[in-house]
C-alpha cells in the first residue's frame, strides 16, 4: 500500500476540474476545481452515452434488495449529492485502495481480487481526471458512482469492496482526508500573506503612521508594527488550523454503520495507510462526529474576520480623505459611469466575503444542533458549506497577498497628516511620571496642555516652556526630547511596543521565521 502522501498531494485538492454531468436537475452554483477557479458544474459523459439513455437504464440501487419500487424522480433529484460530493473522488478512491488492501491482508478477499480492484480504481481515477467518467444521479453519490462503475468494469471482485464498510464511515473517511488537505492548503496561503506583509514592512522601514482607537487618532506607530499585528493574527489562525488538523486526523474507516463489524478487519492497517494518527476509538462517535467540520469552519471564520479588518483599513486608507496608500492599477477597478474612479474592489470583497464564511459556519452549527443519536441523512448537507468556506477563504488570502504586493504608501501625505491629533500626548504624560508625578495627575496636566494647544491652534511641541510651566512646575527643558512624533516613537521601550528597537527585533524574528528578505522575496526588488 502506498503511503498517503504519495497517493494524494495537498495541491490536488483543487487541481482537477470535475467534468460536466448532464443531469435533469439544476446543478449547484459552486464546486471546487482548480485553486481560485470555479470547477465545471456538470460531469462529462462519454460520447457513447447520452443522458436520455442513462435515464432509460435506471438501475436497481446497490441497497435496493428489500425494495419493490424505485424512488420517484422528485426524490432522486432531492436526495442526490453527486452534484457536489464528487469533489471527494480522489479521497474516496484513496480510502478504497487502503480498504481493499486491508481486506486481502485479513483473508477477506483474494490477492487476485484486490489487484483487480486496485487496477479498476486506477482506471476510474484516470477517466475522471480526463473528463471521460459518466457520473449518474441514479447512483446518488460519489461512493456509489465509483463502486457501481467498478462493478461494471471488473465484475464480481468489486462486490467485495464494501465488505466491513458502510457509506457512513466511508464518507467520513473521505471528508476527513479532504479537510486535512484543505487545511494544508489554507496554511500555505496564510503564509503567503504573512510574507507579503513582512515584505511590505521591509520596503517601508522607518515610516510612522497615526495609530487609531475608536477611529480617532491615538498614538504614533511604526507602519512595520501595524503590519506585524496582522502577521501575529494570521499566525494564530495557522495555530487553530493545525490544532484542528491534529484532532481530525483519526480514522473512522471500519466503524461501519455505527456498531462496527464482526469480521476480522484491521483498522490500524487502514489508518496507517491513509496517514491518520490512529483509528477512532468509538464507532458511534466515528460516524456521527462533525466536530472537525465545525472547528474548521470556525477557524476559517476567524481568519476571514481578520482579513476583513485588514480590508477595511486599506479601503479607508485608499480614499481621498486618508490618501495613505495608492493601489496599483493591477489591483484596482473602475466605474461604469464615473471615468475618474479607481476603486480598491479586491479588499472591499475581502471585507464582504467574510460574511459568507461566517454564514457557512452558522449553517453547520444549525445543521448539527439537536440531531438524534448516530448518523442522520441531514449530515449530507455538511459538504457544500465546507467546500464554499475553504474556497472563499483561500481566495481571500490569495487576493490579500496580491494587494499587499501592489500598493505603495504615500510618505509625504502621511507626514503631513501626522501632526494633527496631539499623538505625543501620552508620551508627555510618561515624561511627567518619570519626574515622579502620579499618572492620574500627569494625565490631568497633559489634558490641560492639550486644551491650551487647541486654544492656540498649535501642537504640544510648539508650546513655550513658560506655557508648560504655567500648567505644572514639573516641566523642564528636557521635555522637548519627548515631544514630536519621532521623539514619541523613540521613547517606547516595553516588550512588544512600537519603539524603533522593539519593532526592529520583531521584524528580524519574522524575517527569519518566514525566510523572507530582499533575496528571497521577488516583490522586494
Shape: elongated
Distance N to C terminus: 46 Å
| H/E element sequence | HHHHHHHHEEHEHEHHEHHEHHHHHH
Strand neighbour order, sheet with most strands: 1-2
- Stretches where pLDDT is under 50 for at least 5 consecutive residues are 1-12, 15-56
Radius of gyration: 30 Å
SS element count, helices: 20
Mean pLDDT across every amino acid position: 88
The amount of beta strand, in percent, is under 5%
Helix coverage percent of residues? 40-55%
Number of strands: 6
Q: Structural class, from secondary structure content? A: mainly alpha
Largest sheet: 2 strands, antiparallel
Question: Could you please describe the fold and organization of this structure?
Answer:
- The chain is mainly alpha-helical.
- The longest helix is centred in the middle third of the chain and has 37 residues.
- It is built from 20 helices and six strands.
- The chain is 54% helix and 4% strand.
- Helix 8 runs antiparallel to helix 9, helix 9 runs antiparallel to helix 12 and helix 12 packs antiparallel against helix 13.
- A two-stranded antiparallel ribbon has the order 1-2.
Describe the SSE topology.
Elements: H1 4-7, H2 51-56, H3 73-79, H4 82-85, H5 89-105, H6 111-129, H7 142-154, H8 167-203, E1 208-213, E2 216-222, H9 223-248, E3 250-251, H10 267-273, E4 278-279, H11 283-288, H12 291-317, E5 325-327, H13 345-368, H14 383-404, E6 407-409, H15 411-417, H16 425-434, H17 439-456, H18 465-469, H19 485-491, H20 500-514
Parallel strand pairs: 3-4
Antiparallel strand pairs: 1-2, 5-6
EC number: 4.3.2.1
Domain Fumarate lyase N-terminal: 65-359
InterPro entries: Arg_succ_lyase_C, Argininosuccinate_lyase, Fumarase/histidase_N, Fumarate_lyase_CS, Fumarate_lyase_fam, Fumarate_lyase_N, L-Aspartase-like
Amino acid at each position: 500500500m502506498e503511503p498517503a502522501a504519495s497517493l494524494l498531494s495537498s495541491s490536488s485538492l483543487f487541481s482537477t476540474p470535475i467534468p460536466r454531468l448532464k443531469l435533469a436537475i439544476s446543478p449547484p452554483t459552486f464546486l471546487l476545481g482548480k485553486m481560485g477557479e470555479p470547477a465545471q458544474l456538470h460531469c462529462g459523459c462519454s460520447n457513447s452515452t447520452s443522458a436520455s439513455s442513462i435515464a432509460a437504464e435506471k438501475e436497481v440501487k446497490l441497497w435496493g434488495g428489500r425494495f419493490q419500487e424505485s424512488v420517484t424522480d422528485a426524490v432522486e433529484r432531492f436526495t442526490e449529492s453527486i452534484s457536489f460530493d464528487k469533489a471527494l473522488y480522489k479521497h474516496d478512491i484513496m480510502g478504497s485502495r487502503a480498504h481493499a488492501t486491508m481486506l486481502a491482508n485479513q483473508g477477506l478477499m483474494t490477492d487476485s481480487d484486490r489487484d483487480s480492484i486496485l487496477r479498476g480504481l486506477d482506471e476510474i481515477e484516470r477517466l475522471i481526471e480526463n473528463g471521460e467518467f459518466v457520473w449518474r444521479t441514479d447512483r446518488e453519490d460519489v461512493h456509489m458512482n465509483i463502486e457501481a462503475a467498478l462493478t461494471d468494469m471488473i465484475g464480481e471482485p468489486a462486490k467485495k469492496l464494501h465488505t466491513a464498510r458502510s457509506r457512513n464511515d466511508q464518507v467520513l473517511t473521505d471528508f476527513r482526508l479532504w479537510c486535512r488537505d484543505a487545511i494544508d492548503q489554507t496554511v500555505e496561503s496564510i503564509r503567503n500573506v504573512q510574507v507579503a506583509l513582512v515584505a511590505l514592512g521591509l520596503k517601508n522601514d522607518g515610516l510612522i503612521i497615526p495609530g487609531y482607537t475608536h477611529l480617532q487618532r491615538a498614538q504614533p506607530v511604526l507602519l512595520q508594527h501595524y503590519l506585524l499585528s496582522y502577521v501575529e493574527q494570521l499566525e494564530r489562525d495557522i495555530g487553530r488550523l493545525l490544532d484542528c488538523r491534529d484532532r481530525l486526523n483519526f480514522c473512522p474507516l471500519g466503524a461501519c454503520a455505527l456498531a462496527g463489524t464482526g469480521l476480522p478487519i484491521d483498522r490500524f492497517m487502514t489508518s496507517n495507510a491513509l496517514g491518520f494518527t490512529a483509528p477512532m476509538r468509538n464507532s458511534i462517535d466515528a460516524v456521527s462526529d462533525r466536530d472537525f467540520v465545525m472547528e474548521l469552519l470556525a477557524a476559517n471564520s476567524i481568519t476571514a474576520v481578520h482579513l476583513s479588518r485588514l480590508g477595511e483599513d486599506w479601503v479607508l486608507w485608499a480614499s481621498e480623505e486618508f490618501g495613505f496608500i495608492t493601489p496599483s492599477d493591477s489591483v484596482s477597478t473602475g466605474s461604469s459611469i464615473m471615468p475618474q474612479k479607481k476603486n480598491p474592489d479586491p479588499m472591499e470583497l475581502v471585507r464582504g466575503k467574510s460574511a459568507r464564511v461566517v454564514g457557512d459556519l452558522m449553517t453547520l452549527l444549525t445543521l448539527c444542533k439537536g440531531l438524534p443519536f448516530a448518523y442522520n441523512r441531514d449530515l449530507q448537507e455538511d459538504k457544500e458549506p465546507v467546500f464554499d468556506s475553504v474556497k472563499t477563504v483561500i481566495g481571500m488570502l490569495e487576493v490579500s497577498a496580491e494587494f499587499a504586493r501592489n500598493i505603495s504608501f504615500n510618505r509625504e501625505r502621511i507626514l503631513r497628516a501626522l501632526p494633527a491629533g496631539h499623538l505625543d500626548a501620552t508620551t508627555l504624560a510618561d515624561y511627567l511620571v518619570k519626574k515622579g508625578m502620579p499618572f492620574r495627575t500627569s494625565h490631568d496636566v497633559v489634558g490641560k496642555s492639550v486644551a491650551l494647544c487647541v486654544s492656540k491652534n498649535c501642537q504640544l511641541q510648539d508650546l513655550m516652556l513658560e506655557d508648560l510651566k504655567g500648567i505644572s512646575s514639573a516641566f523642564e527643558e528636557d521635555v522637548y526630547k519627548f515631544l514630536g512624533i519621532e521623539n514619541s516613537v523613540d521613547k517606547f521601550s516595553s516588550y512588544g511596543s512600537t519603539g524603533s528597537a522593539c519593532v526592529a527585533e520583531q521584524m528580524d524574528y519574522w524575517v527569519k521565521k518566514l525566510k523572507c528578505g530582499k533575496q528571497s522575496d521577488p516583490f522586494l526588488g
